[in-house]
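Course assignment 3, question 2. Fill in each field.
Student: A.L.
Task: Predict the tertiary structure for the chain below.
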Amino acid sequence: MIIKKITIIIMFLMATVYSQILLPADYLKPKDELFFQKWRDSSKTKFLSLGTDLNCDNLIDSVFILEKKDGKGIGLFAFLKDEKNNFTVYNLYESTKDKNNYDNLNEVQIEQIRKQYKSAYGIKIANQGSYQTACGKGYYECEEDEPEEVLLKCNGINFFLYESANSFFYWDNIQNKFKRIWISD
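Answer field:
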Protein backbone atom coordinates (compact mmCIF):
# COMPACT_ATOMS: atom_id res chain seq x y z
CA MET A 1 0.00 0.00 0.00
CA ILE A 2 2.80 2.42 0.94
CA ILE A 3 4.71 1.53 -2.23
CA LYS A 4 1.66 2.32 -4.37
CA LYS A 5 1.22 5.71 -2.66
CA ILE A 6 4.89 6.58 -3.14
CA THR A 7 4.70 5.50 -6.78
CA ILE A 8 1.68 7.75 -7.36
CA ILE A 9 3.44 10.75 -5.78
CA ILE A 10 6.58 10.18 -7.86
CA MET A 11 4.57 9.82 -11.05
CA PHE A 12 2.74 13.10 -10.30
CA LEU A 13 6.03 14.95 -9.86
CA MET A 14 7.46 13.50 -13.05
CA ALA A 15 4.31 14.41 -14.99
CA THR A 16 5.19 18.09 -14.87
CA VAL A 17 8.49 17.41 -16.65
CA TYR A 18 6.90 15.22 -19.33
CA SER A 19 3.91 17.52 -19.95
CA GLN A 20 5.95 20.09 -21.88
CA ILE A 21 7.31 17.60 -24.44
CA LEU A 22 5.44 15.58 -27.04
CA LEU A 23 6.51 11.97 -26.50
CA PRO A 24 7.08 9.50 -29.36
CA ALA A 25 3.86 7.76 -30.45
CA ASP A 26 4.66 4.25 -29.18
CA TYR A 27 5.94 5.40 -25.79
CA LEU A 28 4.66 6.80 -22.51
CA LYS A 29 6.16 7.95 -19.24
CA PRO A 30 7.07 5.01 -16.98
CA LYS A 31 4.08 3.70 -15.06
CA ASP A 32 4.93 0.06 -14.37
CA GLU A 33 5.82 -0.51 -10.71
CA LEU A 34 9.02 -2.23 -11.88
CA PHE A 35 10.43 1.23 -12.60
CA PHE A 36 10.25 2.25 -8.94
CA GLN A 37 12.66 0.04 -6.97
CA LYS A 38 14.36 1.21 -3.79
CA TRP A 39 17.72 1.88 -5.49
CA ARG A 40 16.06 4.71 -7.43
CA ASP A 41 15.15 6.62 -4.25
CA SER A 42 18.43 8.57 -4.25
CA SER A 43 17.34 10.47 -7.38
CA LYS A 44 14.49 12.99 -7.58
CA THR A 45 13.73 11.70 -11.07
CA LYS A 46 14.28 8.03 -10.16
CA PHE A 47 17.11 7.96 -12.74
CA LEU A 48 14.42 8.07 -15.46
CA SER A 49 14.90 11.64 -16.71
CA LEU A 50 17.42 14.44 -16.71
CA GLY A 51 17.84 17.98 -17.91
CA THR A 52 21.19 19.40 -19.01
CA ASP A 53 22.85 21.18 -21.92
CA LEU A 54 23.88 18.29 -24.18
CA ASN A 55 25.16 20.26 -27.20
CA CYS A 56 26.74 23.33 -25.56
CA ASP A 57 24.16 25.81 -26.89
CA ASN A 58 23.29 27.10 -23.39
CA LEU A 59 19.79 25.58 -23.57
CA ILE A 60 18.57 22.85 -21.25
CA ASP A 61 17.82 19.66 -23.16
CA SER A 62 15.78 16.75 -21.78
CA VAL A 63 16.39 13.02 -21.72
CA PHE A 64 13.89 10.32 -20.74
CA ILE A 65 13.69 6.59 -20.34
CA LEU A 66 10.22 5.82 -21.65
CA GLU A 67 8.08 2.71 -21.49
CA LYS A 68 6.70 1.06 -24.62
CA LYS A 69 2.91 1.37 -24.67
CA ASP A 70 2.63 -2.41 -25.03
CA GLY A 71 4.76 -2.77 -21.87
CA LYS A 72 7.38 -4.86 -23.67
CA GLY A 73 10.41 -2.64 -23.45
CA ILE A 74 11.95 0.77 -22.98
CA GLY A 75 13.41 3.52 -25.10
CA LEU A 76 15.99 6.20 -24.35
CA PHE A 77 15.17 9.53 -25.98
CA ALA A 78 16.97 12.86 -26.03
CA PHE A 79 15.04 16.05 -26.77
CA LEU A 80 17.34 18.86 -27.91
CA LYS A 81 15.81 22.27 -27.37
CA ASP A 82 16.24 25.16 -29.81
CA GLU A 83 15.93 28.94 -29.35
CA LYS A 84 12.21 28.82 -30.22
CA ASN A 85 11.50 26.23 -27.47
CA ASN A 86 11.01 23.47 -30.05
CA PHE A 87 12.55 20.04 -29.53
CA THR A 88 14.32 17.70 -31.93
CA VAL A 89 13.88 14.09 -30.81
CA TYR A 90 16.72 11.55 -30.92
CA ASN A 91 15.98 7.87 -30.35
CA LEU A 92 19.18 6.69 -28.68
CA TYR A 93 18.22 3.19 -27.58
CA GLU A 94 15.33 0.74 -27.82
CA SER A 95 15.36 -2.48 -25.84
CA THR A 96 13.22 -4.18 -28.48
CA LYS A 97 16.07 -3.66 -30.96
CA ASP A 98 18.70 -4.97 -28.56
CA LYS A 99 20.99 -7.76 -29.68
CA ASN A 100 19.38 -10.29 -27.32
CA ASN A 101 18.69 -13.52 -29.18
CA TYR A 102 15.32 -14.81 -28.01
CA ASP A 103 15.27 -17.78 -30.40
CA ASN A 104 16.09 -20.42 -27.78
CA LEU A 105 14.16 -18.88 -24.88
CA ASN A 106 10.69 -19.69 -23.66
CA GLU A 107 8.08 -17.00 -22.90
CA VAL A 108 8.91 -16.93 -19.17
CA GLN A 109 12.60 -16.29 -19.88
CA ILE A 110 11.77 -13.59 -22.42
CA GLU A 111 9.46 -11.87 -19.91
CA GLN A 112 12.25 -11.92 -17.29
CA ILE A 113 14.56 -10.10 -19.71
CA ARG A 114 11.86 -7.53 -20.44
CA LYS A 115 11.36 -6.94 -16.70
CA GLN A 116 15.10 -6.37 -16.32
CA TYR A 117 14.92 -3.41 -18.71
CA LYS A 118 12.35 -1.73 -16.50
CA SER A 119 13.89 -2.55 -13.16
CA ALA A 120 17.57 -1.98 -13.84
CA TYR A 121 18.22 0.74 -16.44
CA GLY A 122 18.80 4.34 -15.43
CA ILE A 123 20.29 7.63 -16.59
CA LYS A 124 22.24 10.42 -14.98
CA ILE A 125 24.37 13.29 -16.21
CA ALA A 126 27.87 12.50 -17.45
CA ASN A 127 29.69 15.75 -16.68
CA GLN A 128 32.09 17.42 -19.09
CA GLY A 129 35.57 15.98 -18.85
CA SER A 130 37.88 13.21 -19.91
CA TYR A 131 36.92 9.57 -19.29
CA GLN A 132 38.71 6.30 -19.86
CA THR A 133 36.56 3.99 -21.98
CA ALA A 134 35.89 0.31 -21.32
CA CYS A 135 38.45 -0.75 -23.92
CA GLY A 136 40.90 1.83 -22.54
CA LYS A 137 40.55 0.14 -19.15
CA GLY A 138 41.45 -3.17 -20.78
CA TYR A 139 38.01 -4.82 -20.56
CA TYR A 140 38.39 -5.77 -24.22
CA GLU A 141 40.38 -4.80 -27.32
CA CYS A 142 39.49 -1.40 -28.74
CA GLU A 143 37.78 -1.48 -32.13
CA GLU A 144 39.38 0.49 -34.97
CA ASP A 145 37.24 3.59 -34.36
CA GLU A 146 36.94 3.19 -30.58
CA PRO A 147 39.12 5.49 -28.46
CA GLU A 148 40.79 4.54 -25.19
CA GLU A 149 39.66 7.86 -23.79
CA VAL A 150 36.76 10.17 -24.60
CA LEU A 151 36.56 13.91 -23.95
CA LEU A 152 33.06 15.21 -23.27
CA LYS A 153 33.05 18.86 -24.32
CA CYS A 154 29.41 19.15 -23.22
CA ASN A 155 27.54 17.15 -20.61
CA GLY A 156 26.46 13.72 -21.78
CA ILE A 157 24.12 10.93 -20.75
CA ASN A 158 25.36 8.15 -18.49
CA PHE A 159 23.08 5.24 -19.48
CA PHE A 160 23.58 2.45 -16.99
CA LEU A 161 22.41 -0.94 -15.88
CA TYR A 162 22.18 -0.81 -12.08
CA GLU A 163 25.33 -2.26 -10.49
CA SER A 164 26.58 -3.35 -13.91
CA ALA A 165 27.62 -1.88 -17.28
CA ASN A 166 27.31 1.71 -18.45
CA SER A 167 27.84 3.72 -21.59
CA PHE A 168 27.81 7.42 -22.42
CA PHE A 169 25.78 9.07 -25.13
CA TYR A 170 27.31 12.40 -26.07
CA TRP A 171 26.79 15.04 -28.74
CA ASP A 172 29.39 15.35 -31.51
CA ASN A 173 29.24 19.01 -32.65
CA ILE A 174 31.23 18.26 -35.81
CA GLN A 175 28.96 15.46 -37.05
CA ASN A 176 25.82 16.93 -35.41
CA LYS A 177 24.74 13.63 -33.90
CA PHE A 178 24.91 11.57 -30.74
CA LYS A 179 27.63 8.98 -30.31
CA ARG A 180 27.79 6.10 -27.84
CA ILE A 181 30.87 4.87 -26.03
CA TRP A 182 31.13 2.06 -23.47
CA ILE A 183 32.64 3.09 -20.13
CA SER A 184 32.36 -0.24 -18.29
CA ASP A 185 31.09 -3.70 -19.08
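Instructor remarks: The radius of gyration is 17 Å. Helices lie at 2-18, 107-120.
Grade: pending
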